[in-house]
Each structure stands twice: as structure tokens, then as C-alpha cells.
Amino acid sequence: MKTGRIYLEPDIFKTVVQHTPLVSIDLIVRNGAGDVLLGKRRNRPAQGVWFVPGGRVGKDETLNAAFLRLTEVELGQAVQREAASFVGVFEHFYDDNFHGTDFSTHYVVLAYQLSLPHNGPFPEDQHEAYAWFSPAALLADDRVHTNSKAYLIKSGDSMPEGKGTR
User: Fold this and answer.
1) Is the dihedral of CA 101, 139, 164, 34 positive or negative?
2) Which of 26, 28, 99, 138 has its CA 20 to 30 Å from the CA of residue 131?
């Protein structure tokens, strides 16, 4: 399984982000009750908001290898991509980037849904906190990024009336 070079030098990565879209995998993680796992992001873009776990696919990294790496890094447990169901391809556009606000970020995202048999703890490198949100609460909460809400809308969870709590 090819794993590829995951991290670029900051100046090279800045040039890449400024001129090309990035490919990433997002993880719509559900527990036995159907709640969705979100993390409060530490880094740009989408810093400080609740977002599904996920991350970039590296150059020459297979999707299977990226999925294993990302589930290990984001969830603390490596999961095979075959254990997840493909939700679809999404595009995310942000006004900022990992480095600041001088240019935008564009992601082409492969979204997968999976179940976890445990409720944590989860690694906190990329997220300062994790929480389980019911679909209704996730869709109603202004602190949840619209890109994360789009996954539930596509998968058939409807927009609730009023505001929910996590």
C-alpha cells in the first residue's frame, strides 16, 4: 500500500493551497444512537467551529492508506475504508487558509460515513474538543460549520425546526 509524502514544507504547501484545490476525506462518524461526532477545530480554515473529523490525502497516498491514517489520527482507531459507506463528493471553499487570510482554500472532499463502537477519548491534535450531536441539534446549531451540515442534508436528515442543543 502506497502511503506517499504527507507533509510539505510550509512555503511549498502555501503555494499549493494558493493555486490548486486540495483533496481530502471527511468522516461522518455515528454512534449507536445515530449521533454524529464533531470536533471543535484548532486550525484554519474553519478554526473555532464544530466540524466532522477528516484531513488531506497526500501525494502518492492511496485512498485506502489515507483513510487508515486519518481514522487513526482523528479517531484514535484505524478503520478500513471498506467499513465505511461513501456519501459523495463535495466542494468546500474558505476565505482563509492554514497560514492566514491572504488567499482562499478550495477542497474537493470525499465524504464517508462510518460507525464507531466507542465514544472516545479522541486525539486532540486537530480539535480542542469533541462532542456527539444528534442530527437535529447539529443542523440547528450555528456553531456547526455549514459544510458539515451539508453531509447530513445529503444523507437524508432533514433541517429541524428551531434550535437544538448538543
Assistant:
1) negative
2) 99
Q: Per-residue pLDDT tens for 1-55?
A: 455 556 678 788 778 778 999 999 999 999 999 999 999 988 888 888 999 999 9
How far, in Å, CA of 28 to CA of 85, rounded?
Answer: 10
d(CA 54, CA 107): 12
Domain residues of the chain, as ranges? 10-118+126-154
Q: Rounded to whole angstroms, how far apart are CA atoms 157 and 135?
A: 7
Instruction: Strands of the chain (E only): list them.
Output: 22-30, 36-41, 50-51, 54-56, 85-94, 105-115, 127-133
pTM of the predicted model, to two decimals? 0.87
Alpha helices in the chain (DSSP H): 10-19, 63-75, 135-140, 146-154
Report domain 10-118+126-154's class.
alpha beta
Q: In whole angstroms, give the CA distance from residue 65 to residue 1.
A: 7
β-bridge mates for residue 94, sequence order: 105
Return the DSSP state at 120. Answer: -
